[in-house]
Amino acid sequence: MAAIGLFYGSSTGRTQNVAEQIAAEFGPGEVDLHDVRKATVDDLAGYDVLILGTSTWHWGGLQDEWAVFEDKLPAEHLKGKKVALFGLGDQKHYGDCFADGVGHLAARVRSLGAEVVGVWPTDDYDFAHSAAVEDGHFLGLVLDEDNQPDRTADRIRTWVRQLRDELAF
Ligand SMILES: Cc1cc2nc3c(=O)[nH]c(=O)nc-3n(C[C@H](O)[C@H](O)[C@H](O)COP(=O)(O)O)c2cc1C
Question: Which of 90, 92, 125 has most ligand 1 atoms within 8 Å of CB, for mutation?
Fold first, then answer.
């Protein structure tokens, strides 16, 4: 079992692709990948760190399988844990609810006693509103594969380096 468990939900494969890139950036054997479509809540047990990734759908909603899995998240596997979040969205067509899913997951895991780490600057994005923003930062890495796919690799590299510092990994 790896030290980091990464749980993602993805409707058209983009968040899955990003999850695989994040795992590759950490390195072999450091991250176990779990698709929430197939994961059970007991899969959350035993990791030092959790990374949760979702896309945003339906004007500010969580990705479909995440919406189901979120309801089952158990406090026993989240209380006192450090949780890093990432999310995909489309700032051009959904600029009023850009990557809101990250904000929803942050609220949920905090309500279960987890600490959110890995906040990310909002510079270099152009949007009107996002539930993922708190105190001028996104509550996790936000990626826009619809409009800024060329920035994804750099953003992942920087965020993973930042997480390693924050988590002393
Ligand atoms: C019908 C539809 C609704 C969407 N709703 C939102 C939204 O509310 N907010 C947002 O930021 N992105 C929204 N998106 C953009 C997706 O989040 C984005 O394309 C993402 O990369 C999809 O990732 P996935 O394939 O892993 O699910 C929407 C896309 C579609 C097609």
Answer: 90
